[in-house]
Amino acid sequence: MKTVLFVCVHNSGRSQMAEAFFNWLARGKAKAISAGTDPADAVDSTVIEAMREVGVDISNNIAKALTREMMERADKVVTMGCGVEGVCPAGFVETEDWELEDPKGKTIEKVREIRDDIRARVLKMLEGLES
Predict the structure, then answer these.
(1) Fewest beta carbons less than 10 Å away: which of 2, 100, 103, 106?
(2) Which candidate, 71, 66, 76, places its Cα nearest to that of 35?
(3) Is 105 helix (H, G, I), strand (E, B) or coil?
(4) What pTM does this model have?
(5) Measuring CA to CA, how many Å separate 68 from each of 32, 34, 72?
(6) 98-127, pLDDT tens digit by residue?
(7) CATH number of residue 31's parent domain
(8) Which domain holds residue 98?
């Protein structure tokens, strides 16, 4: 089974949404995990609210620290905009950067835009895995 690792700085917003959408939409055909290079104390409450609006509950998720083992187990790594900040690690697996705006401190309307962009990107990625 293919494993995708979504990485951002705090693992409290973008990567949490991507992991949740991926696992929800993949329906067991592939798996996603997420982590941060400097994990927050908790997942952003506005992100939790925005995901709840589309039927995905991440309220019990926790921010996780990126480990070497996570990188080694991943078939693909997606950085969530932190690649341009120079804080995400390079790996030996296929890596791409989605250059997404950080939802931290944003209004619910802006978080919804980011959420919907992530969902569309995850759907496109899953289509590519199936072909």
Answers:
(1) 2
(2) 66
(3) coil
(4) 0.87
(5) 16, 13, 6
(6) 989 999 999 999 999 999 999 999 999 999
(7) 3.40.50.2300
(8) 2-130
